[in-house]
Amino acid sequence: MVNVSSTTCFLPVRPWINDVKSVLRSLRLSLAPLVLLAVLLAIWEIYSRSSTIGDNVLPAFSRVLTAGWADRQSLWENTVPTVREVIIGFAVSVAFAFVISVLLDLSPRANRAVMPLLIGSQTVPLVVLAPLFVIWFGFGFLPKILLVTLVTFFPVVVGLVDGYASSERDAVTLLRTMGAGKVSVFTLVRLPSALPGFFTGLRIGITYAVVAAIFAEYAGAVSGLGVYIRGASGSFRTDLVLAGVVVAALITLGLYGLTIVVQRLCMPWYAASRKVLQ
Amino acid sequence: MNRGIAIDALTKAYGDLDVLNGLNLHVDRGEFVSILGPSGCGKSTLLSVLTGIESADSGSIAIDGQGLAGSGSPFAWMPQTDVLLPWRSVSDNVALGYQVAGRVRKSQARKQAGELLGTFGLREFADSHPYQLSGGMRQRVALARTIAQGRDILLLDEPFGALDALTRTELQLWLDQIWGRERFTVLLITHDVREAVLLSDRIYVFSERPARVVGEFDVPLERPRTMSMLAGDQAKQLELDLLRALHVGSGDTP
Prior knowledge:
Oligomer: heterodimer
Order of helices and strands of chain A: HHHHHHHHHHH
Number of domains of chain A: 1
Number of helices of chain B: 8
CATH class of the largest domain in chain B: Alpha Beta
CATH superfamily of the largest domain in chain B: P-loop containing nucleotide triphosphate hydrolases
Strand content of chain B: 15-25%
């Protein structure tokens, strides 16, 4: 006889042990890029100190840091508007991407009609668009939001649309045999199935967002990292230009890390199920 | 009046390709009936007609003597793969049956799912996620989700086909045990002769495409079923008869 409550098939999982393990694992994994970064910075430092290149052409990394720190007041005042543009622009972008992706998913005809336009929108170079946006919308907040949105929504749309398509066919059929309508199938199967693709798109998009915001500011703005970098460049302060670049890189890294944290919170089953499969 | 499901002269063709050709079968209430057929016998077409994904060209499906007119499918489908949703816990996967097919509110569906898991001996897995379960355990949960739909007839589509032989046997005996207690009306689709003998009250043998019934066999075994019954003369003779009806090994004469 088979015992109905047989437990032999179950893999025991003790959550806290796995938590500790995953923290140690991510520490070990983040060690490698940190070491590589340190090596590259050391090479830069040694090269700029030992070569005959002038300090205003290639300042040593340590000088970039000290100059940036000395100018921290101004750097901070210009970082805040950029971060604001990035976050609001990206939020608009994700909302827009979601609406578009739902339309594309519900109607194959819309997909055929809209997709080429979306792809086309990605071929317009940022260099051309940024000054045009300043001419059309002025020096304010709006052209920055628009540019960030335009540059970042595409990977999110593609991630969502591909994600919907990755839904298991039998799962969709099963729900239909249960009598589920189009909306229920979408919310119960297609949307959750799209989450991995969505987060992939989100991660790609976020890396473009800071660049887009700085570009928009570069073309014309009152404040922001783009303005800061342009000003520093105009007065041959390469150390401050690079300090601005370091801040921009840190913002991008931070936002990228944030998307990973949000992904973990939204879909804890995903990382765990992949670990079991490996 | 014939209680249960009656399928009468069901016909379906895709263009010139006849897939179902005047199919007749019936399943009484509380009966366990299997359909045994070769691969590609139009089984999946029958499934999609029964579950309401597609409509038949002609013929009728009646339940307790009444036509199906507009009341939705009386079948709860259990697919070959478990298709548990990975983002839902075991109990939420089962709750899906109550929620979608039964139109029950989510909190109520959860409660009912918890109770059902209890009767299935799966309560301790209620909060687990599918990736934490073995293939056999996942199929058990999938069966619970099928029952949670509250439909009249369970339509089991090679439910154990993807499992290894040991787990398959274990699950077949488990299903027999559950069935013995609950007496669901079951239509099992399989190409495993031993599975059909082990589980069914009655077995239909299908021909190759276009599918029609070429044989109907009663299973003369007692319940609950055991593996040793399969080694008995009656079961052996039935297996042989079924294989003959399927034209497998038709060259050897008795």
